[in-house]
Design brief:
By secondary structure, the chain is an alpha/beta fold. The chain has 9 helices and 6 strands. The chain folds into 2 domains: 145 residues, HAD superfamily/HAD-like (Rossmann fold, 3-Layer(aba) Sandwich); 67 residues, Putative phosphatase, domain 2 (DNA polymerase, domain 1, Orthogonal Bundle), CATH 1.10.150. The relative contact order is 0.19.
Amino acid sequence: MNFRNVTHCIFDMDGLLLDTESLYTMAYNCVTQEYDKVYTWEHKAKIMGFRSTDALQTIIDLLQLPISVQMFEDKLASIYQEVFPKCNMMPGAERLLRHLKDNNVPIALATSSSQESSDLKTQKWKHIFELFDHKVYGGSDLEVPRGKPDPDIFLVAARRFPDNPDPSKCLIFEDSPNGVQAALAAKMQVVMVPDPQLPKRLTTDATLLLESLADFKPESFGLPAFVA
């Protein structure tokens, strides 16, 4: 495979850096089962990467739940408070972020979560998330008008680097199909690390498909290689 060399890296968070997707599934099902409905991978694949309000409205529509987005959010809030602070990093994430930082590769976070939600999830990992040059919280950032699969969040993340790199010089790391489409719409290459349960037909558009961030070889994109 021939990849373009890049100079900057932009990372999604949920399901890529943090092992939160199973927690979302559990939380959503706690609510949907009140109405005898089950939230499945078929539904999950549609909303991965969405901002929270968009995701919840989609679930309400798909499952025909007799509640509003606000009611859904209220029911989820106490569950989130309990489970999100306990979430763990995904394999290879810390090593890769530290390697890029140590080699002066500019890195940014671009998550569809709000800053409030992100702060809750990263409580145990502040020392890791402080490595980022900057963070874009798509769920609460007024400069991100549209969520994934639109490219806005990644274009904003690129512009906020001090040297404002061309999008072609940015490499995106994602786990969701919507995130991959957002990266491609931004004219950026994208490394996808999908959940093993995600249907394979939804993983075909990424520039590079990996089972784990631990498998990433930075030199493939002209970045400094790991030292053995």
